[in-house]
Amino acid sequence: MSIYTMEKLESICATAAEGAKRKDETMEVQVCLKGYDLKRDKKFDGSVVLPFQKRKNERVLVVGDRNLEEMAKEAGLPFVLYDDVAGKTKEKKTMKKKFAENYHAVITTNTFHKYFEIAFLNRKRTPFYIFDPNGGNLKKFHDEVLRTVKFKLRQTNVVSFPVGTLEMNPAEISQNIRTGLDFLFTLLKKGVQNIDTISLKTTQGKPLRLC
């Protein structure tokens, strides 16, 4: 069952671009769900890689040990040591709060859980991406993170995700939207039947209804 067409997507993207004050604004898809009992139904959690980058300047922080620090330096990525953020002192909490405010995402390893309190950044909805340093290429992994969106049902029936900037052409943004929505439908218990409304919104613009 199709609830939108690529032609309609491209038309709405073009309309959003025409009315935007700045061309570097990020476009976001906002999906309102129906038929979900947030207290009883199983909450979904998944991610998908989009064809194109989802933000113009995605800020990603790498958190790890000395070995990962060298890889981050080679890739030209911002880095912080586990030991520098571990702990619950006022100073450490302030540091983590700044990370949550200044970065869109965090790249780390499985051992991260032993040193850092994920709960804090989760409350800020900062997504985490687990990197395997054994044979993995951090630069390629980071490039994939820039195109990855995560879907997680929380305490509201609204799910949103970024799909690009208005500097991109409508066809590229539309491909990102379609990839993200098609994957989201697979996570829903009744697929598109759980969709109430879908809107597109730029950073400073008004929502444009897709369906």
From TrEMBL:
Xref: Gene3D superfamilies: 3.30.190.20, 3.40.50.790
GO CC list: large ribosomal subunit
Residue runs in coiled coils: none
Keyword entries, A-Z: Ribonucleoprotein, Ribosomal protein
A biological process term (GO) from this entry: translation
Domain of life: Eukaryota
GO molecular function per UniProt: RNA binding; structural constituent of ribosome
Family stated for the protein in its record: Belongs to the universal ribosomal protein uL1 family.
Name recorded for this polypeptide: 60S ribosomal protein L10a
Organism listed in the record: Antonospora locustae (Microsporidian parasite)
